[in-house]
Amino acid sequence: MSLTIKELRRKKPIKIAGIVITLVGIVVLLLQFFTMTTQVEGIHIGPFNTNAEAKTTFPISPYLIGIILAVGIAMFIVGHKKKL
Fold first, then answer.
1. Which pLDDT score, from 0 to 100, does residue 1 have?
2. Residue 32 dihedral angles phi and psi, to the nearest 5°
3. Composition of the chain by helix, strand, coil, percent to 5
4. For 27-73, how does the pLDDT look when each residue is reduced to its tens digit (9 = 90+)?
5. Strand 33-45 relative to strand 48-59: parallel, antiparallel, unpaired?
6. Helix, strand, or coil (residue 11)
7. How would residue 12 be classed by pLDDT, with cut points 50, 70 and 90?
8. Quick one: how far is CA 74 from the chain centroid?
9. What would you measure as the largest C-alpha separation in the chain, in angstroms?
10. What is the pTM of this model?
11. Burial of 18 per CB tally in 10 Å (0-12, 13-18, 19+)
C-alpha cells in the first residue's frame, strides 16, 4: 500500500530531524568536549586597565553521545518506515 500525502507530511519532518540529530551526535562524538571563552575584567587604575580571557573546557559524557546517536537513528527509522 502507498502512503497518503497526510502520512508523508507527518513522517518527513521526523526523518529530517533524525538525520540532523544523528549528525550532531557524530560531531559531538568526534569532539567529545567543548570550550567556552569569556572575558574577565582585571584591575582599573586611572587610564590603565587589564583584561584576560578565561577558557573553560566541558567534557561530554560518552553515555550522552550514545543517547543522542540512538535517538537520531530511531527517529530516522520511524520516519523512514513504510506502512505495511
1. 47
2. 60, 5
3. 55, 30, 15
4. 988 988 888 888 888 787 878 888 888 888 889 888 999 999 999 99
5. antiparallel
6. helix
7. confident
8. 16
9. 79
10. 0.61
11. buried
